[in-house]
Amino acid sequence: MAASSSSISSTSAHALIINPKQVNNPLMKHIHRIPWQQGDIVPDFVMGRTVCGLFLSIRYHSLHPQYIYERLDKLGSLYEVRVLLLLVDTQQYNGILKELSKLALTAGCTLILCWSNEEAAKYLESYKIFETKPADPIMENNSCAATECLSAIKKVNKTDAASLMALYGSLDSIIRASKEDITLCPGLGPHKAEQLHQLFHEPFLK
Fold this sequence. Notes:
It comes from Amphimedon queenslandica (Sponge). Belongs to the ERCC1/RAD10/SWI10 family. The protein folds into two domains: 16-133, 3-Layer(aba) Sandwich (Rossmann fold), CATH 3.40.50.10130; 142-201, 5' to 3' exonuclease, C-terminal subdomain (DNA polymerase, domain 1, Orthogonal Bundle), CATH 1.10.150.20. Helix content is 46%, strand content 15%. It has helices at residues 58-63, 67-75, 94-107, 117-129, 135-151, 158-168, 171-176, 179-183, 189-201; strands at residues 16-18, 36-38, 45-48, 51-57, 81-87, 109-114. It has a six-stranded mixed sheet, sandwiched between helices. Strand 5, helix 3 (94-107) and strand 6 form a beta-alpha-beta unit. The termini are far apart.
């Protein structure tokens, strides 16, 4: 169970700061990996020195369409990273998603769709947990995953996959590369380059 505000008053730097109005938000029941405490803040959540979050459900927006506009207006230009967590709690959401996507874009917010309160809580926890983490370990994990993915292709071994990642830096760049460019990668040659290029560009369904 997450620590209460009274028990972590001395650890605010390591805690998720929440607006008192969000204490009874159902997502708070799913905050387990980090401490949290109440604070006198404008947004709903503060996940870092420059990161904040607002919470909204589609059902609530349908009943109170001006609410999020007023919240964003009050938030102004505070915080460099602003996240709008949108709980999709109704099946009638297409028109609302279009509206809120446009709003988030113009307000400089990152819109994240959540399909449950538990998922919304995990996003808040992740933002806080990775607040002070360097990017290198995350990039290394992505690189390892991409290497494993490439080496699963027939006739492409781990050495080939590592060479491709070293040359292009990302799986996306490899996919965008031409057959001729892939051929220049040490150890691949025209046959493997042809196979890779064909695999990346052939349709999934025939």
